[in-house]
Structure formats: structure tokens, C-alpha cells
Amino acid sequence: MPPDLYVTTHIHTDGPIPGPHSLLTLTAAAHTAAGVPSGTFTVNLRELPGATLHPASLREWRTRAEEWLTTRRASRPPALATLEFARWTARLPGRPIFVVEPESYLFVYWYAQRFAGEWPFAGTTPAEAAPHRNPAADACTLPSCRAQLAATG
User: Fold this and answer.
1) Residue 5 forms beta bridges with which residues?
2) Could you give the domains of the chain?
3) Residue 31: what are its φ and ψ, rounded to 5°?
4) Which of 32, 83, 135, 144 gets the highest tally of CB atoms within 10 A of its CB?
5) Which residues have a Cβ under 8 Å from the Cβ of 33 and sit 6 or more positions away?
């Protein structure tokens, strides 16, 4: 039986819920229970057709204009990006268990169901979020992510 691999995610969005608002960046890191890395995934996604930037998110992103531009570079259509994530998850050398933060779960689940037609973590129960550090956040290149990691480090 393959080992369990814990998949943590780190996301950036333009609003509080998927559908009316978009997932902009999805970064994931897979690791064993002992913390041994098994792989990472990152993608910038284009905005959903018809979705809008939430006013509170707009105010926040205006204070981080350079980071906004980083999330828009080399962005992929949502369906292709989500399918790439589902394929990456399927190729992991173990049983993937989604380690969840509520905001990540909502967006990743919605996108997976909408664009991949399935939840790539089927048959597993989501684990609670890592209590101190999210390995997927380590791969985030935005300055605000690095500042947040330094604060929790």
C-alpha cells in the first residue's frame, strides 16, 4: 500500500467565494507524515468569465499592486490549470490527503468539481490545517507570503 502524502495548499483569490470571484494562484506541496517533501505544484489562473473583483479584495490588492501583477503572469485558463492540478495529484507516489485551511478548501473543491469533474482527494478525509507552518506557503513568491512566513517562522 502506498504511503499517505499530505497535500497542503496556499491560494490567492480576488474575493471571498468561488464563482462570483476567482482563484488567482494555487500552490501545493506534498509531503510524508515525517515532513519529507514529495513534490510541489504552482499555477496562476485566469479570472473566471463574468467574475468580478470583490471591493474588499480590490482595496487589499491596491496596496500590493506588484503582487497582483505577479499573480497575473503566465496565467492559465481555469479549466486547464485545474486539470493540471488534478493530474499532478494523481501522479503523486502515495495516497493524497488534503490538509485543509477553510478558504483553500472552498476554492480548491469548487474548482476541482467545476473543471475536473471530481475531487482528486476522493476516499480520504481532509486533515486539519498544519498548526504552525504550511509547506505550500513556502513556495509562494509574493513578498506578503514571505513576510507572513517570517512572522510564523
Assistant:
1) 96
2) 4-152 (3.30.420.10)
3) -155, 155
4) 135
5) 3, 4, 6
